Amino acid sequence: MRWASCTGTATSRAGCSSRTCGPRAARLACLSNDAAAWSAILRRRFGLDRRVRRWFVSSDLGARKPDPAAYEAVLGELGVPAEQVLFVDDRPVNLAPARSLGMRAVLFRSDGTGVPSEPCVGSMPELVAAAKAGGRPGRPGRRG
Fold it and tell me: What is the pTM of this model?
């Protein structure tokens, strides 16, 4: 896996860094349904640019998740096959387009509720374990 694409929520809560992800960590990119100016403010406020290498903001792309055009734009900019991307999002509706393009997709849930039919993760260690398992987290509807 060359890229892990996360939503802004998942990225900020997961807190990936070279310390938590290790030296062979995937490079992080973010696809966010946001306005460019507001996205920049949030990135500065929470120091997210230190953790995420590439930002793709819907207002710049002209497409929002779950529109497949947003995912296609990101893949085009990253220049990697979809199979090399692990897409992480906190909304199940946003996972289907990623999967339809060939990405591995994981639901990030911080509240522990999950979706009955959707395997999910709720922390960076769980996400790293899922990435090592080929993008397959634990049991449906539960973290890990």
Answer: 0.75
